[in-house]
Design a protein that fits this description.
The protein has helices at 3-24, 29-38, 45-52, 61-71, 75-79, 98-105, 126-152, 158-184, and strands at residues 88-91, 94-96, 110-112, 117-119. By secondary structure, it is mainly alpha-helical. It is built from 8 helices and 4 strands. The chain is elongated, with a radius of gyration of 23 Å. The longest helix has 27 residues, at 126-152. A hairpin with a 2-residue loop joins strand 1 (88-91) and strand 2.
């Protein structure tokens, strides 16, 4: 399939899914338009009708996002309709299972077209380290929550509570190291409610907290070949 035809096909898919979800919500085209306007991104009813009727196949990323929000579905559900297709063309001439396409789109994995296997996300991706940052944040919250629940329930196992607190502190220093490395590599650390940026290194329970850092490779240079992604 030639690239322009594939691009048209993507627009047609989005239009079909917009109509599918609009009807499932019991919304008219005007109601969908009104919902988009309330979100601060007006899309006239005539535009929605033209999209759904195939008179307009060039749908922007911004339009896809606001339509998805108005329909209360993830934007990816409009682009790669997992659950409605057995296989889809995620890029021109390349067909995969819809869920593989969804995970590739969200940066959860790479698609190795030579082996047909899914591979781990590239550690060089800013998205990957941002996801790791969120995971560490959640782990810290879980440790503190568990320690607090033990106290509330009147647990006398003070050693276990202290162990949970130490685990939380170690992870806080791990998060601090990750954030410092992100800055060093020109990335922007996510906003966090945890006060880790000002932690004094001398108070680190785990003096080897930097060993947890996995984001060490530099961004590879373009060599003319597209790696599996």
């Amino acid at each position: 399939m030639e690239q322009p035809d594939w691009m048209t096909h993507v627009g047609t898919t989005i239009a079909r899914e917009v109509r599918r979800y609009r009807l499932a919500r019991g919304m008219s085209a005007q109601q969908l338009s009104d919902a988009c306007e309330k979100l601060g991104a007006p899309i006239p009813r005539t535009v929605i009708s033209n999209i759904e009727n195939g008179r307009r196949t060039n749908i922007s990323v911004a339009e896809t996002i606001v339509l998805a929000r108005a329909l209360r579905v993830p934007p990816i559900a409009l682009i790669y309709p997992a659950g409605y297709e057995e296989e889809l063309e995620y890029v021109p001439g390349k067909r995969v299972d819809p869920m593989r396409a969804v995970k590739w789109f969200s940066g959860e994995m790479r698609i190795d077209e030579r082996s047909g296997l899914n591979t781990l996300p590239d550690p060089d991706w800013a998205l990957t380290i941002s996801r790791q940052h969120r995971n560490v944040e959640s782990r810290i919250s879980d440790y503190y929550r568990s320690a607090n629940e033990e106290r509330i329930n009147g647990s006398r196992d003070t050693d276990y509570i202290e162990q949970l607190l130490n685990l939380a502190r170690n992870q806080e220093y791990r998060l601090k190291a990750m954030r410092e490395e992100m800055v060093r590599r020109g990335l922007t650390p996510p906003k966090t409610y945890l006060k880790v940026d000002d932690l004094p290194p001398s108070d680190a329970p785990d003096k080897n907290f930097d060993k947890h850092w996995a984001y060490e490779a530099e961004f590879p240079l373009y060599t003319g070949e597209l790696p599996p992604f």
